[in-house]
Predict the structure.
Amino acid sequence: AEAAERGLVSEFRLKLEKLDNARDRFLSKDEEEKLMIHLPPEMRPLVRFTILTGLRLSEALAVRPQHVQGNILRARLKGTKLGRIPLTDEAVTIINENDWSGLYFKSVQRSFKRAALQCGWDDVTFHTLRHTTASRLVQKGASLVQVKELLGHNSITTTQRYAHLAPDYGEALLKLLD
């Protein structure tokens, strides 16, 4: 603010977003396995691929094998962004061995919701898979900046909802000062 008053920089305002963490439900490995049992077989590869990439449903449905170069997926993300998503070997195998071009957004959502309800979860949607990706990464030590870039968030504020899942975050940070 002082620099803006002196005319050194243009004025900007820091906008803080309110986060509703009630929608930050994610699946444990056991819950993922339980869900897979209740999903139609043709949806299982798509769901696993989505957990491995963090893609939104619309983004995942658009992926084709020709979008993969080595272990990198070139995908159109939300809006007009083009993303380069690193892929595990499992994700590459899934996309090369499965065709979900016959699956449609609304029918996938309905089938997914039905499977989640059969598991006894009324708080799980397809988007929960994206939260699962982010949550697992943070729990295993990925930085919030890395997760932000992978998921294509515009703001680190969006990614900060996962900060509480970082193991020993404060201790690891302080060790850097030694």
The chain is about 45% helix and 5% strand. Residues 59 and 78 are 8 Å apart (CA to CA). The first strand starts at residue 68 and ends at 69. The beta strands are 68-69, 72-76, 82-86.
